[in-house]
């Protein structure tokens, strides 16, 4: 049984490797994320961020190493019940309305009252005018808001988000961030934009060339600044130092 103990480890990867056609994508990833923590996974395009999330959610199997989420192997039903996942290019059911998507996925995910939960998320994300609109007719921004809602409709304990603020304007970003802040969950956010990482998390894991190259807090990063460097410049320097 999953125990959301804030002193425990909710996401763990040990020695994870993954190759695509003999080309290494992950080269011995190690990470431990405590329950209740909020981490960002930072790295350049091609660093292995999306591959890491896909392994954590059970969509990809690592070539070697051990991974657990909430103490479970990600491919098990026990893990899937507690995980919420937003892929980078999420695509809800285009022939269903926004509301139908939320109710359908909520029912599949075992939500006690899918209609009520759908209405709650629609209201929180200012989607009421579009609730009867088919996904195929939604703007890219509203489709992204729906995708975020679908990732959390079942009250997941561990949330994995790949570029969650893509396509969202600043006011909408603020409403999504507020909603995520209200969740009592562990989450890992993959992004290559430091500003987004600062908004969504307190801790940072930097990866490059398929391995973890730095792990610490946002304050740690700020304290590493030299001669008035911005935090983005600190991160870029850390990436360069290990390249």
Write the SSE topology.
Blueprint: E1 9-20, E2 23-34, E3 38-42, H1 49-56, E4 64-69, H2 77-82, E5 83-86, H3 98-108, H4 114-124, H5 140-152, E6 158-162, H6 170-181, E7 186-191, H7 194-200, E8 203-208, E9 211-217, H8 218-223, H9 231-242
Parallel strand pairs: 3-7, 3-8, 5-6, 6-7
Antiparallel strand pairs: 1-2, 1-4, 8-9
Give me some keywords for this one.
single chain; 243 residues; alpha/beta; Rossmann fold; 6-stranded mixed sheet; 3-stranded antiparallel sheet; 9 helices
Overview of the structural elements:
The protein has a single domain, classed as Rossmann fold (3-Layer(aba) Sandwich). 40% of the residues are buried. It has 243 residues and is an alpha/beta fold. A hairpin with a 2-residue loop joins β1 and β2. It contains nine helices and nine strands. The strands form two sheets. The chain has a six-stranded mixed beta sheet with strand order 5-6-7-3-8-9, with helices on both faces. A three-stranded antiparallel beta sheet has the order 2-1-4, with helices on one face.
Q: What do we call the CATH homologous superfamily?
A: P-loop containing nucleotide triphosphate hydrolases
Strands across the major sheet, in which order?
5-6-7-3-8-9
Radius of gyration over alpha carbons?
18 Å
Q: Specify the helix fraction band.
A: 25-40%
- Domains (count): 1
Question: Summary?
Answer:
The chain contains nine helices and nine strands. By secondary structure, it is an alpha/beta fold.
């Amino acid at each position: 049984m999953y125990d959301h103990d804030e002193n425990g480890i909710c996401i763990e990867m040990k020695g994870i490797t993954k190759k695509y056609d003999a080309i290494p994508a992950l080269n011995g990833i190690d990470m431990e994320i405590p329950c209740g923590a909020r981490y960002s996974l930072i790295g350049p395009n091609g660093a292995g961020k999306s591959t890491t999330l896909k392994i954590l959610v059970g969509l990809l199997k690592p070539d070697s190493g051990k991974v657990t989420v909430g103490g479970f192997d990600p491919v098990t039903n026990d893990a899937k019940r507690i995980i919420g996942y937003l892929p980078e290019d999420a695509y809800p059911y285009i022939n269903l309305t926004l509301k139908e998507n939320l109710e359908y996925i909520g029912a599949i995910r075992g939500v006690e009252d899918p209609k009520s939960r759908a209405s709650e998320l629609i209201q929180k994300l200012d989607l009421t005018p579009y609730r009867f609109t088919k996904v195929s007719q939604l703007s890219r921004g509203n489709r992204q808001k729906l995708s975020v809602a679908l990732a959390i409709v079942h009250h997941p304990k561990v949330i994995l988000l790949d570029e969650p603020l893509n396509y969202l304007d600043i006011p909408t970003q603020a409403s999504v961030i507020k909603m995520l802040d209200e969740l009592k969950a562990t989450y890992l956010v993959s992004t290559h934009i430091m500003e987004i990482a600062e908004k969504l998390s307190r801790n940072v894991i930097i990866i490059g060339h398929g391995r973890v190259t730095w792990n610490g807090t946002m304050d740690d990063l700020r304290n590493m600044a030299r001669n008035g460097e911005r935090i983005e410049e600190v991160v870029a320097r850390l990436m360069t130092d290990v390249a």
